[in-house]
Design brief:
Number of helices: 25
Strand content: 5-15%
Radius of gyration: 30 Å
Helix content: 55-70%
Distance between the termini: 20 Å
Length: 733
């Protein structure tokens, strides 16, 4: 591995014009494809194998033309103080608004509140339901404008009018904080390298890689049904790892220059050693992201695969374009140790140990104290995770400044908290001898269950073999009581099936959210086994050790649990919510734990590979186990610290997103990187290695013979690198 990458690095350095041309051409091609492709919307959401999805599919078959996936809007009216919505003037205003709404070309139907009995008991609140022929992201701007205009016209008469539903759904934006994150990364790079040119290389290559990845996703969004969130998350992860991977290779290049090697040789050696770590670190991230497909939720699978593709591009760019750009930079990238001269300062005395060396020496002397402090600290941070509540966002999680949230609150006020989360019961009586009797029995059974406020009469289709029944719970959609009601209806359906041969299915957004949470919970353990197992085997090959990969996996579990605890504290409990821009606390996103596990595991292994390979390299070259730890920190701690700060800055930049899922993931990944890089990898890892000593690098002889020798440490370069024409045959080929 190291020898091949060494040759690739030298070849890229020498043929830099050709390499740069290839990547610029790919960026241009992807950009043209993105520019000519239709805008990305929200991907269709489906959960194969769940009851809610089966009911949804059945509705599309038995109720053709209903547009079950069409956008909806609830226009909510509230009468002025002292008035009723049944007053003649207010009634006329509402009916005029309904008439205006029905004129839209994309409108399927509009319900009149007075005919549909959609007026609250006290008469102060009413709503009109608007159904569209297309989904929320496919709505024309003219339809949204007409919806808002009709509400504004009704407000002129003194009514309070708000609009809920997904008809006002728009593509989320990330906000200016994303740019701040990149700016922080640039500052850290300048401080680390002491040179604008050296600092600019990782930023440039990361932006090119993200540009190719995100543009490709945009170009294929319509064909592959990729949502706008997919490209945002791919950008988030691709930018972070792209900067980090390039940072490690440039840092190793400067170290090789400081040892007296010429620039082409230094580029080859940097790619062969640090590049090997980049390859295996990238593989762990890709495994973790692609592994999300085991959950069998198409949207999550697409997000993972798209982000994994962007990571793969980041790895390839780091291995080829960084050496090419180093060739262009020439003497403007200084050897390590000349940073002080570049900044106009006197260089530090070479014999003075750096901070990484001093810290590692301290940990080696006090491993038990450091280990206990780190584990106890992460354990305390993980405590809130025990109160984790999962759910999917609805209008109730929107900021109070939005019309969607105000409409949600008005409906709760007028019709009860469960009105915003109605359950749709689908009765499939195609195999029943008496469908009408089956429909009636289902309605009667549901009325007898706890927490049921309203049960509408069955609404059969034209064939008379399928009916829908709307059930209004007494509790809010995200409550445990509502979840119990869904399971209660499904349990009752089992007895009805035995009596009437009719199938009873529960669907709707609330039931769908419950099924998503259960499916994700069920998939978490298999996912962990698959991803951690594959990465464990990969790390055994890299480190030629059993205990080092085991320690890496256990450290990851500490990091992710502590990060989940922080997410619960901020987004569910409301700690520091104002600072994070969280206007509404509530359940944590259902996808958050498993997505965080995947991404954090990949990123955690990044730092493990980059830091521990330096220790392994020193150990293989003859140093004692304890001294190898100090050597690894002397060469790698500063760079890993810079990489972690950069990654935290990039992820934190997405906290400003208007999309609650992106905001939550940005915060979760940023805090997870902090825990993993600075507590696990910088404290717990060296403490454990110090306690294990030589045993840390133990590997059974039979396994050592069976494993392939990938030579991440660059041992093979000791002979090859001394020959200046090692790769000339490759160049001529």
């Amino acid at each position: 591995m190291a020898t091949f990458l060494y040759k690739l690095g030298r070849l890229s350095f020498r043929r830099r014009h050709f390499v740069a041309l290839i990547w610029v051409a790919l960026l241009t091609l992807a950009g043209v494809g993105a520019a000519s492709a239709p805008a990305a919307g929200n991907s269709s959401f489906s959960i194969p194998g769940t009851e809610a999805q089966k009911a949804f599919d059945l509705l599309e078959q038995r109720f053709p033309g209903v547009s079950a996936d069409g956008a909806t809007a609830r226009v909510v009216f509230k009468a002025p103080s002292g008035e009723k919505m049944t007053d003649p003037g207010n009634k006329a205003t509402v009916r005029e608004a309904v008439k205006e709404l029905a004129d839209g070309s994309e409108v399927a139907r509009v319900t009149d509140p007075y005919q549909a009995k959609a007026v609250s008991k006290d008469g102060t609140i009413a709503y009109a339901q608007v159904s569209y022929k297309v989904s929320g992201m496919e709505l024309e701007d003219s339809s949204r404008d007409a919806l808002q205009d009709s509400a504004q016209d009704a407000r002129k008469s003194g009514l309070t009018v708000e609009i809920g539903g997904d008809a006002l759904q728009t593509v989320p934006h990330t906000g200016s904080s994303e740019i701040i994150g990149i700016a922080v990364a640039a500052v850290v790079l300048v401080i680390t390298f002491g040179s604008l040119v050296a600092a600019g290389l990782p930023l440039l290559t990361a932006l090119i890689g993200v540009g190719i990845g995100v543009s490709t996703i945009t170009a294929l969004a319509s064909v592959l049904d990729l949502g706008s969130t997919t490209s945002t998350l791919a950008m988030m992860i691709g930018l972070a790892v792209g900067i980090d991977y390039a940072l490690f290779i440039v840092s190793r290049y400067r170290a090789e220059l400081a040892e007296g090697r010429d620039r082409e040789e230094a580029a080859g050696r940097a790619t062969g050693t640090a590049g090997s770590a980049v390859v295996f670190a990238g593989l762990t991230v890709v495994i973790a992201l692609v592994g999300l497909s085991v959950v069998n939720i198409p949207m999550l699978t697409k997000m993972g695969v798209a982000a994994a593709g962007t990571v793969a591009i980041a790895v390839l760019i780091a291995l080829t374009m960084i050496p090419a750009l180093l060739g262009y930079a020439g003497r403007r990238v200084k050897p390590m140790g000349e940073k002080g001269k570049r900044l106009g300062r006197a260089p530090k005395k070479p014999e003075r140990p750096n901070l990484g060396t001093r810290w590692a020496s301290f940990v080696v002397r006090r491993p038990i104290a450091v280990l206990l402090l780190g584990v106890i600290g992460l354990g305390a941070a993980a405590v809130p995770a025990s109160s984790l509540e999962l759910g999917l966002p609805d209008d109730g999680s929107q900021p109070t400044s939005t019309t969607q949230r105000r409409a949600y609150d008005l409906l709760s006020e007028g019709f009860g908290p469960g009105f915003n989360g109605p359950l749709m019961v689908v009765v499939d009586a195609k195999g029943s001898d008496d469908p009408k009797a089956a429909f009636t029995q289902v309605g009667d059974e549901i009325k007898g269950l706890k927490d049921v406020v309203t049960v509408t009469p069955p609404a059969p289709n034209k064939a008379g073999d399928t009916a829908t029944i709307t059930v209004i719970p007494g509790s809010q959609p995200s409550s445990v009581t509502t979840e119990n009601l869904v399971h209660g209806i499904r349990d009752a359906g089992t007895g009805i099936k035995a009596d009437t041969d009719a199938n009873v299915l529960v669907t709707g957004s609330t039931a769908m959210n419950i099924d998503v949470s259960e499916k994700l919970n069920d998939a978490l353990v298999p996912y962990l086994v698959l991803v951690v197992g594959l990465a464990f085997l990969l790390l055994i090959v890299v480190f030629r050790s059993i205990l080092v990969p085991l320690k890496a996996a256990l450290g990851f579990l500490l990091s992710v649990m502590a990060a989940l605890g922080a997410v619960v504290a901020v987004f569910q409990w409301g700690w520091l919510s104002g600072l994070m821009g969280v206007e509404q606390t509530g359940p944590v996103m259902s996808m958050m734990p498993i997505f965080m596990v995947g991404v954090v595991f990949g990123l955690a292994m990044d730092y493990e590979v980059f830091l521990v390979t330096r220790m392994r390299e020193a150990y293989v070259h003859g140093e004692k186990a304890g001294q190898a730890i100090v050597t690894g920190f002397r060469h790698g701690a500063r760079v890993v610290t810079a990489a972690a700060v950069i990654m935290m800055a990039v992820f934190a930049g997405f906290i400003g997103s208007s999309e609650s899922m992106v905001k939550m993931i940005g915060f979760g990944l940023a805090i997870a990187v902090f825990f993993d890089a600075f507590i696990v990898r910088m404290a717990i890892v060296p403490a454990v290695l110090a306690l294990l000593g030589r045993k840390a690098w133990w590997l059974p002889k039979w396994l050592d013979r069976a494993l392939p020798n990938v030579d991440v440490e660059g041992e093979g370069l000791r002979s090859d690198s001394d020959r200046g024409d090692t790769d000339r045959e490759l160049v001529r080929a």
